[in-house]
Write a structure and sequence with these properties.
- By secondary structure, the chain is an alpha/beta fold.
- Helix content is 57%, strand content 11%.
- It has an eight-stranded parallel barrel with strand order 1-2-3-4-5-6-7-8, surrounded by nine helices.
- α12 packs across α16 (323-335).
């Protein structure tokens, strides 16, 4: 037992923000499950781009697929490889899923980032990937864009687990939380079961501080009269934002609307902290784990940050602590004109663009492997 295992006692699950064929084949995921109590895995286009676009780990499987499917599209070739990895991770995590009675043990696969602005195409892609992977402990990742919100409700209504990604603002989080509830209510209204449908809302953290801190540093450098006040909120806005999102979650699950679903066995949509690797070397490398520990939450962690927390993380119930200070931090950020709403809007656009760019690079790398096999 160690620090990562201790998080479970606080009600927080740890998921790995990484997937790679060599890592899976070598038993790396199983080791984390056995030794650190890891209960989930997330993937995204950037992770797959790094895994598939470098080295030869996927070459044999791709050559075999190309031989059996001459002229297959690059997208089909990618999906074949991704589905294999996701199935392998899901199978490793299936004992966790069974032990926890579907409350955890999930692996996430994202719909194409090219579809972020297309509700109907996202719904169709989610259903297609769900069928292809064919694992009960799969979550389909759908971005929490305005177009993604109705797709989330429809996908939950179809009985498909959803990981909502690219959430930065509290208002966007509320919208997807209510979409999850709407999907459950439609199923329940038809008399269909809702007790084994799971969802997480992936709230991105460190990128907010990167944007806000850059604005603070620029103003301080220019001799802003509010320099001291600006410096007092540096590195605190993202954590404050997350704490207030969680405060809303606690209020909502106590509401009559949620309790009516809970009485039918519905599981709450857990908040998941994403982008938790510390990007500023001035901050502790476990900052976004130490400060966001609370019940019914998930922290999805890149391997380097996982190692850091195992070594020197601090386990304490921090998420519900000092919420008044979090409110003050956001009030100060607003008073100082740091435009958190504008920052979060920009981050959503950048996130969609970043994933699309990674997908471009990924498909390009796959197309370059055995190009003669592609029509």
């Amino acid at each position: 037992m160690g620090r990562l295992n201790d998080l479970a006692a606080k009600g927080q699950a740890v998921w790995l923000d990484f997937v790679d064929r060599k890592f899976l084949a070598a038993g790396g995921l199983q080791k984390l499950v056995d030794e650190d109590g890891l209960t989930g895995v997330t993937s995204n286009p950037s992770i797959f781009e790094k895994a598939m676009g470098q080295g030869d780990a996927y070459d044999a499987a791709l050559a075999e697929y190309d031989k059996a499917n001459p002229g297959a599209s690059t997208m089909a070739r990618y999906e074949h490889l991704a589905v294999q990895d996701i199935q392998a991770a899901a199978d490793t995590l299936r004992p966790v899923y069974d032990r926890l009675d579907a409350k955890d043990g999930y692996v996430s696969l994202e719909v194409s980032p090219y579809l972020a602005a297309d509700t109907d195409a996202t719904i169709a892609e989610a259903a297609k990937l769900w069928a292809e992977v064919d694992r009960a402990n799969l979550m389909i990742k759908i971005p929490g864009t305005p177009q993604g919100v109705p797709a989330i409700a429809a996908t939950i209504d179809a009985g498909i687990n959803v990981n909502v990604t690219l959430l930065f603002s509290i208002d966007a989080y509320k919208a997807v939380a209510l979409a999850y509830v709407a999907g459950l209510e439609k199923r329940a209204g038809r008399g269909e079961p809702i007790d084994r449908i799971a969802s997480v809302a992936s709230f991105f953290v460190s990128r907010i501080d990167t944007k806000i801190d850059d604005a603070i540093d620029a103003r301080v450098k220019d001799g802003d009269a509010e320099g001291d006040a600006l410096k007092s909120v540096r590195g605190k806005v993202a954590i404050a934002n997350a704490k207030l999102a969680y405060a809303w979650y606690e209020e909502f699950i106590a509401s009559d609307r949620w309790q009516a679903l809970a009485a039918k066995g519905a599981m709450p949509q857990r908040l998941l902290w994403a982008s938790t690797g510390t990007k500023n070397p001035d901050y502790p490398d476990t900052l976004y784990l130490d400060t966001l520990i609370g019940a019914d939450t998930v922290n999805t962690v890149p391997p380097k940050t996982l190692d850091a927390f195992r070594d020197h993380g601090i386990v304490a119930e921090t998420l519900s602590a000092d919420v008044a200070s979090a409110r003050h931090t956001l009030a100060e950020a607003e008073r100082l004109g740091l435009d958190l709403n504008g920052v979060t809007d920009t981050l959503v656009e950048e996130g969609v663009h970043s994933f699309a760019k990674a997908f471009d690079d990924l498909l390009g790398a796959i197309a370059a492997k055995h190009p003669e096999a592609v029509a």
